[in-house]
């Protein structure tokens, strides 16, 4: 896995590089203390599997804007935001387009870093993506293609990137068959947490623009589960 780390604190860069070198999955590490230099390297054709991006550069959350620019240049590169101020930026990170994979708090916990690296590595492994399998229909849908799942009357609608598949099952049966990364945010809705763009006052905006309701009782649990999914940092 080819990694870039962007942070204006040189001491953090060196310490974090040492943490990353502990893992065999990491093949190369490039360090950047200047965002323009980093974006210039990507614009010049350098590709990274994942970028650990500091949010705060001086007094400004420039990392969020840089991640948006990276998304234009290399949409498949995963972004893992790193910050010492999780509560300050937990909402802002969803405002711009980015291939967001995680959120880490400084100082970075080695175990949580490992979980984030494994998550990226799993996504890079061709043919190993988990899938939803429905026995009654002999149906297999790659989990990463599912945006959300909806219960209507006695059917379940599985909304993917390309189509909506209808199955005659209970929502609980489908939820139990799903791999990790899905959460029931409402009695009638299950969301793919990797497809969430941001949390709003009473609902969730998905990456495809669809708004999914969140029940009042499940809002805090849904949000905390999502933050844990993104990097183990519940609020």
Task: Write structural notes for this entry.
The protein is of the alpha/beta class. The strands form 4 sheets. A 5-stranded parallel sheet has the order 2-1-3-4-5, with helices on both faces. It has a 5-stranded antiparallel sheet with strand order 10-9-8-12-11. A 3-stranded antiparallel sheet has the order 13-14-15, with no helix packed on it. The two termini are 30 Å apart. It is built from 7 helices and 15 strands. A hairpin with a 4-residue loop joins strand 6 and strand 7.
- Contiguous helical run count: 7
Total strands: the figure is 15
Biggest sheet features: 5 strands, parallel
The pLDDT mean sits at 86
State the strand order across the main sheet.
2-1-3-4-5
Estimated share of beta-strand residues = 25-35%
Please give the share of residues in helix: 25-40%
Coarse shape: elongated
Encode the helix/strand succession as letters: EHEHEHEHEHEEEEEHEEEEEH
Q: What can be said about this structure in brief?
A:
The protein is of the alpha/beta class and 235 residues long. Helices cover 30% and strands 31% of the residues. The strands form 4 sheets. It has a 5-stranded parallel sheet with strand order 2-1-3-4-5, with helices on both faces. It has a 5-stranded antiparallel sheet with strand order 10-9-8-12-11.
Salient structural properties:
235 residues; alpha/beta; 5-stranded parallel sheet; 5-stranded antiparallel sheet; 7 helices; 15 strands
């Amino acid at each position: 896995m080819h990694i870039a780390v962007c942070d204006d604190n040189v001491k953090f860069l060196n310490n974090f590089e040492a943490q990353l070198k502990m893992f065999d999955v990491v093949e190369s590490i490039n360090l950047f203390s200047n965002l323009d230099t980093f974006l210039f390297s990507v614009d010049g054709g350098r590709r990274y599997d994942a970028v650990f991006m500091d949010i705060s550069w001086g007094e400004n959350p420039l990392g969020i804007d840089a991640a948006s620019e990276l998304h234009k240049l290399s949409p498949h590169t995963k972004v893992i935001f790193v910050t010492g101020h999780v509560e300050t930026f937990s909402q802002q990170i969803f405002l711009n387009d980015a291939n967001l994979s995680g959120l880490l708090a400084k100082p970075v916990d080695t175990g949580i870093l490992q979980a984030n690296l494994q998550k990226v590595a799993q996504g890079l492994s061709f043919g190993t993506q988990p899938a939803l399998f429905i026995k009654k229909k002999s149906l297999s849908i790659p989990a990463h293609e599912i945006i959300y799942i909806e219960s209507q009357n006695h059917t379940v609608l599985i909304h993917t990137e390309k189509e909506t598949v209808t199955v005659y099952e209970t929502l609980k049966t489908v939820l139990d068959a799903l791999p990790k990364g899905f959460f029931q945010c409402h009695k009638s809705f299950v969301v793919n947490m990797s497809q969430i763009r941001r949390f709003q006052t009473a609902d969730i905006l998905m990456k495809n623009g669809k708004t999914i309701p969140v029940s009042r009782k499940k809002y805090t649990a849904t949000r905390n589960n999502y933050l844990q999914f993104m990097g183990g940092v519940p609020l």
